[in-house]
Amino acid sequence: MTVDQDKLMAFVGKMVTDLGAASAAGGVVIGHRLGLYRALAQGPATPEELARRTETTTRYVAEWLAAQAASGYVGYDAEAGTFALDEEQAFALTDPDGPIYLPGAFVLALGALRAEPRITEAFRTGGGVGWHEQDPDVFDGCEIFFRPGYVANLTASWIPALTGVEEKLRSGAHVADVGCGHGSSTVLLAQAYPASTISGSDYHDESVQIARKRAAEAGVADRTSFEVASATSFSGRDLDLVTSFDCLHDMGDPLGAARHVRESLAPDGTWMVVEPRAGDTLAENLNPVGRLYYALSTFLCVPNGRSQPGGYSLGAQAGPAAIRQIATDAGFTRFRQATETPFNLVYELRP
User: Fold this and answer.
1) 58-71 and 5-34 helices cross at what angle (nearest 10)?
2) In sequence order, what E strands does the chain have?
């Protein structure tokens, strides 16, 4: 074997960069859990000052800040010996209710990686690892990661992009939110369209319990309901709208789910499918977004699909053609991409 030393060192450098990023993930989660980013956003601080603001230990904070600065997640003023967040860093790292909150993705990723021994064994056996078998941080991380995108886009651009749907919601519609998780999307719909009734469903019992709590806390319990049910068995008929956010690709039987949705819709009803942004070919997805979704899909989406009846395993980078094929096979006659974001594609399906 003849090795090009320049190419070898370039590859080693890439791997070192990735190893540093992987190691930094835990620090981001610590910053999220301890409020370190929010406290630093109050103004530049030395390790001692940030430790006082957060009631933490200076020595740990000093090491954390050094790692954060080396990652480019915080700024460092060598002359003053202080660390700080600029406006963009603070925007992305400090507001869980804002349009972007990156620490949630790191909570999700670290939670997913805890299943590595079981995923490794699944590679050997071909078996699955169900969503309900994942670490609790997977459920929490999903809510923290995806909710800001829903806050920013769901009622501002996604619903308005659908044909005639917003008018129905304002006047009073019957909606099923399939795969609702902790209920973020269900609650947002109920808050935005108080004349409508929204029913959330998820096969994970603990998530449904949290969703009910979230709805009560948000004051929308009177127009929401939640049930433990799969995407092939959720209740409701003659529905005006069915939504599925970032979950169709996780299902073991997406075609069965699509058929059940079509049967549950009113003749003029709509299915809004929000899926991770992807092209139809692997070559189109060899980019930073595809890298993220393929990695998470290996640990979460494909194992979950293989754990369920059907074992279809679309995966998180299925692409529009795969979604269209499922829609066509399920009997939908109209399919279009309604809108998109940097991380999502939004489809409109009609019977």
Assistant:
1) 140
2) 75-77, 82-84, 174-178, 197-202, 224-228, 239-245, 265-276, 334-340, 344-350
Is the CB of residue 21 less than 8 Å from the CB of residue 58?
no
Structure tokens at 44: 């530049």
Alpha carbons 180 and 177: distance in angstroms, whole number: 6
Question: Strands 265-276, 239-245: parallel, antiparallel or unpaired by DSSP?
Answer: parallel
How buried is residue 43: exposed, middle or buried, by Cβ count under 10 Å (0-12/13-18/19+)? exposed
Contact 235, 229 (CB under 8 A): yes
Q: Are 313 and 306 in contact (CB under 8 A)?
A: yes
Each residue's pLDDT tens digit, 281-293: 999 999 999 999 9
Torsion angles phi and psi, residue 331, rounded to 5: 100, 5
- H or E segment and range at residue 104: helix 103-113
Radius of gyration of the chain (CA): 22
Apex 80 CA angle, 78 and 85, nearest 5: 75
Q: How confident is the model at residue 93 (pLDDT cuts 50, 70, 90)?
A: very high
Q: How many Cβ atoms from other residues are within 10 Å of residue 129's Cβ? A: 19
Contact 200, 180 (CB under 8 A): yes
- Give the span between the Cα atoms of 197 and 296, in whole angstroms: 33
CA distance 232 to 238: 16
Distance CA 137, CA 27 (A): 15
pTM: 0.91
Reported as a single tens digit per residue, the pLDDT across 138-195 is 999 999 999 999 999 999 999 999 999 999 999 999 999 999 999 999 999 999 999 9
Torsions phi, psi for 29 (to 5 deg): -65, -40
- Could you identify the residue written with the tokens 């609650």? 187
Tell me how long the chain is.
351
| 159 token code pair | 């619903």
